[in-house]
Specification:
two-stranded antiparallel sheet; elongated; mainly alpha; 3 domains; 51% helix; Dna Ligase, domain 1
Length: 381
C-alpha cells in the first residue's frame, strides 16, 4: 500500500475521530444545557407553588446573601464571589446582561446554594425575598431596636433613621406624636412609641416605612385598649404613662409590674423622687456602657445634673427610657389596689433579691435592711 493511500486513510480516520468527538461533545453539551434548563424550570415551578423561594435558611448548604438597596450587577457578582457561590464574576455579569436581569435584582436577604447554576441564582435574586421576621423584645431602647433590625438583614441608614427619631416631623399625622413633650435632653423623641412585637418587614422598605410599622402598631394598641381614657382619668398624658411604664418595664418581672407601678405612683403622689436604678442604667447604655445590678455612687455623681437621673430630679424623666410592653403600661394604668395587694398604698420601696424578683418595703428603714441583706447574700454566692 502506497504511502499516499496510508496518509489518506490516516487523515480520514483523524477527521472521523474529530467529528465523532465533536458530535459527542455537542450531545453532552446539549444534554448539559437541557439539564440546566430543566433545573431552572423545576425551580420556577417550585417557586410558583410555594409563592416564594424554595431555598430557605434551613435548606442544606444554603448560603445567606443580603443584597443592599441600589446594588448593581457588579456589586452582586462580587458578593456572590465572596460567598464562594460563583467562580467568575465576569461570566455572571455577561449572563446577567444577556438574560436581561440587570437592574432587576431585589434588595433583601436571599438564600442560595453552591450547586445552583448562574441562571437559577439570577432567577431567585430577581424575585422579592421572603419578608424578614424580626422580634423586638419589650424594654428594648431605640438603639437596641435599631441594631436588631440591622443584624436581622434590614438595610438601614443609621444617621437618617436617628434623625427621624430625634425630630419626628414626618409622623405628626399620629395624634400621640403631636402630644410628645419636648425636652432639650430628650434625644430620642419616638422612644417609647415603637411598640415591641414581632414584625414582618419587606426588605426594600425605607426608614420611614419601617418606623411607621411600629407607630401603626402603637396607634392600634393605644386606641383599642382604652388606654387614653384611663390615662385621662388618672390625670396623666399618654406620654407620661409611657415614660413611667418604661421605668416599670426595666424594674421587674411581668407578674410584679402592677405592684411596681403602684410603688412609683405612691412615691409620686407623696412628692418623693422615683430613685429608679433603671434610669441610671439607661444613662449608662446611652454612654455605651453596660447596665449594673447595683447602682454605684460614682454613677449617681457623674449623672447628677442629667434629668434622667431620678435620684437627683423630682418627678418623671424627660421621656421613656425604652419601649415598654403591655404589662408595664397596664401596671401604670391599673396598678395594684388594696383589693389585689393588701396595704398597697403603704408601699414606697422595693429592691431586687438577685433571683429575678423584688422585695417590697413600707419604710426606708425596711428598705435599707433589705438592700443590705440581699446585697450581702448575692456577694456571698
Amino acid at each position: 500500500m502506497s504511502s499516499k493511500i496510508i496518509k489518506t486513510i490516516i487523515i480520514f480516520a483523524c477527521t472521523a475521530f474529530l467529528i465523532m468527538v465533536a458530535f459527542v461533545g455537542f450531545i453532552n453539551g446539549f444534554e448539559y444545557v437541557k439539564a440546566q434548563d430543566q433545573r431552572l424550570t423545576n425551580l420556577k415551578q417550585r417557586f410558583e407553588e410555594k409563592g416564594s423561594s424554595p431555598i430557605t435558611e434551613y435548606t442544606p448548604g444554603a448560603v445567606e446573601v443580603t443584597i443592599p438597596r441600589a446594588a448593581t450587577s457588579d456589586d452582586i457578582a462580587n458578593l456572590l464571589k465572596e460567598k464562594k457561590l460563583i467562580g467568575s464574576t465576569f461570566s455572571f455579569k455577561i449572563l446577567s446582561k444577556f438574560n436581561g436581569f440587570d437592574g432587576k435584582y431585589q434588595a433583601g436577604t436571599h438564600y442560595l446554594t453552591p450547586e445552583m447554576s448562574y441562571d437559577e441564582m439570577m432567577y431567585l435574586l430577581t424575585h422579592q425575598p421572603e419578608a424578614i421576621v424580626i422580634t423586638i423584645p419589650e424594654g428594648f431602647t431605640y438603639k437596641q431596636m435599631q441594631q436588631r433590625l440591622i443584624d436581622s438583614g434590614l438595610n438601614i441608614d443609621v444617621e437618617y433613621m436617628d434623625d427621624l427619631v430625634r425630630r419626628p416631623n414626618a409622623f405628626i399625622d399620629y395624634p400621640f406624636i403631636r402630644n410628645i413633650q419636648v425636652h432639650e435632653q430628650r434625644t430620642w423623641m419616638l422612644q417609647g412609641y415603637l411598640w415591641p412585637d414581632t414584625y414582618r418587614f419587606d426588605p426594600s422598605m425605607d426608614e420611614i416605612d419601617i418606623l411607621r410599622m411600629f407607630l401603626n402598631n402603637t396607634y392600634n394598641k393605644l386606641t383599642t385598649g382604652n388606654y387614653e381614657e384611663r390615662a385621662a382619668e388618672m390625670g396623666l398624658s399618654i406620654d407620661q404613662v409611657l415614660t413611667l411604664a418604661s421605668v416599670v418595664q426595666t424594674e421587674g418581672t411581668t407578674s410584679e409590674m402592677y405592684k411596681i407601678g403602684r410603688v412609683f405612683l405612691n412615691r409620686l403622689n407623696a412628692g418623693m423622687k422615683l430613685e429608679s436604678c433603671a434610669t441610671i442604667n439607661y444613662l449608662r447604655l446611652e454612654n455605651n456602657e453596660k447596665p449594673v445590678f447595683w447602682v454605684q455612687q460614682t454613677d449617681l455623681d457623674r449623672f447628677q445634673y442629667n434629668p434622667y437621673n431620678t435620684y437627683s430630679y423630682d418627678g418623671l424623666p424627660p421621656g421613656p427610657i425604652n419601649n415598654p410592653g403591655l404589662a408595664a403600661i397596664e401596671g401604670v394604668l391599673w396598678p395594684a389596689t388594696e383589693r389585689t395587694w393588701p396595704e398597697a398604698l403603704e408601699y414606697y420601696y422595693f429592691c431586687a433579691d438577685g433571683k429575678g424578683n423584688n422585695v417590697f418595703a413600707k419604710t426606708y428603714e425596711e428598705q435599707l435592711e433589705n438592700v443590705e441583706f440581699y446585697r450581702s447574700k448575692n456577694e456571698e454566692e
